[in-house]
């Protein structure tokens, strides 16, 4: 009896193995049916939202910028006053000329620190995502090209006033210190201005994506008005009178408008950041003027007296010509490639359906 029972169990086991082999062979012979079953099965994916991938609402961006300006400027100005009264600026040969630069940059450095803090806590995103977008990094190649072209434009802008520009024969050691201080601290000031005047506006309709250019002109206009208003207290404007005030203010508007368009066409903030830094670095190190918001030992000084505001506006326009010509050419080429790629995709899908 036991032998009969064991034989019966062995027979059932062999039958089950044969059945499993048959099912396995059927699955291999019918892969399409197996795929359909897998496709119809619900797939549960765990979505992990990182700070870089999180896009904060517009109200959080506004709260971040406003909090940075209010708190950062108050604390920054207090620290700036303390720094400007340090004894080292009165007796130091190399530090005395940099008093205005260091005390002025201190305000922006404190603002930048608070901006980073509010960006992480309120908007829950990173500096890289804010400046360059969630899915991209800084385009170093384009930064070098745009910066070089803008430097060429700055040199060209000196030609109309070349007769009024004088070489100041600065002390080489003092000049070296000035260059080092500008390289170390000036980027804080220019970067913070880019954050306040253009960083928020770039997020209103676009959120770091390359837009259709005409749709961004209104936002660029509003951003440039704010940039101009933020510089109306500069001595370059307040020392003018009548129509010259409007002309000098227009120079800031044109500059802000061009930097905003540069950011739009490149798809990130690096274009405006490098242009703004080179512009201020050029004014502090190479060619300064008699009346300026920050006095520094530059190589040359522009002593132009007649039609200063009009000449300044013309020089601003000339400075942006090389970089803007390149950016417009690049934008049109990239846009043509994108349109061509979109037209190819439907054709490929139609071909696949017919096959």
Could you characterize what this model shows?
The structure is a single chain. With 355 residues, the protein is mainly α. It has a domain of 205 residues. It is built from 13 helices and 3 strands. It has a 3-stranded mixed sheet. The radius of gyration is 31 Å and the shape is globular.
Helix percent band: over 70%
Q: How are strands sequenced across the largest beta sheet?
A: 1-3-2
Q: What structural class results from the helix and strand content?
A: mainly alpha
Tally of helical segments: 13
Instruction: State the major sheet.
Output: 3 strands, mixed
Give the termini separation.
64 Å
* Count of distinct strands: 3
Low-confidence stretches: 31-54, 207-212
Instruction: Give the SSE order as H and E letters.
Output: HHHHHHHEHHHHHEEH
Mean pLDDT: 79
The dominant shape is globular
Q: How large a portion of the residues is in β-strands, by DSSP E? A: under 5%
Radius of gyration of CA atoms, rounded to a whole number: 31 Å
């Amino acid at each position: 009896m036991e032998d009969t029972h064991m034989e019966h169990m062995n027979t059932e086991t062999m039958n089950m193995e044969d059945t499993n082999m048959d099912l396995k062979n059927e699955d291999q012979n019918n892969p399409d049916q197996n795929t359909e079953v897998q496709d119809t099965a619900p797939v549960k994916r765990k979505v992990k939202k990182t700070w870089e991938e999180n896009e904060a609402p517009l109200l959080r961006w506004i709260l971040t910028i406003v909090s940075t300006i209010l708190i950062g400027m108050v604390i920054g100005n207090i620290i700036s006053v303390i720094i400007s009264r340090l004894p080292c600026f009165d007796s130091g040969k190399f530090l005395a000329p940099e008093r205005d630069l260091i005390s002025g940059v201190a305000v922006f450095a404190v603002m930048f620190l608070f901006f980073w803090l509010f960006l992480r806590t309120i908007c829950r995103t990173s500096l890289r995502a804010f400046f360059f977008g969630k899915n991209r990094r800084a385009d170093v190649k384009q930064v070098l090209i745009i910066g070089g072209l803008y430097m060429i434009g700055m040199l060209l802008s000196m030609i109309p006033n070349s007769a009024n520009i004088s070489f100041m024969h600065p002390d080489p050691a003092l000049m070296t210190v000035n260059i080092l201080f500008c390289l170390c601290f000036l980027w804080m000031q220019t970067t913070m201005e880019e954050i306040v005047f253009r960083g928020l506006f770039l997020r209103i309709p676009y959120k770091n994506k390359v837009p259709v250019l005409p749709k961004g002109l209104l936002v660029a206009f509003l951003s440039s008005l704010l940039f101009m208003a933020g510089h109306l207290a500069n001595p370059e404007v307040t020392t003018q009178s009548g129509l010259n005030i409007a002309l000098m203010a227009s120079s800031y508007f044109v500059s802000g408008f061009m930097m905003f368009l540069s950011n739009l066409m490149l798809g990130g903030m690096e274009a405006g950041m490098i242009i703004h830094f080179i512009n201020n670095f050029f004014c502090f190190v190479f060619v300064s003027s008699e009346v300026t918001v920050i006095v520094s030992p530059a190589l040359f000084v522009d002593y132009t007296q007649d039609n200063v505001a009009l000449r300044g506006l013309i020089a601003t326009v000339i400075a942006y010509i090389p970089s803007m010509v390149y950016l417009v050419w690049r934008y049109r080429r990239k846009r043509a490639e994108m349109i061509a790629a979109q037209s190819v995709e439907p054709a490929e899908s139609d071909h696949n359906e017919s096959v």
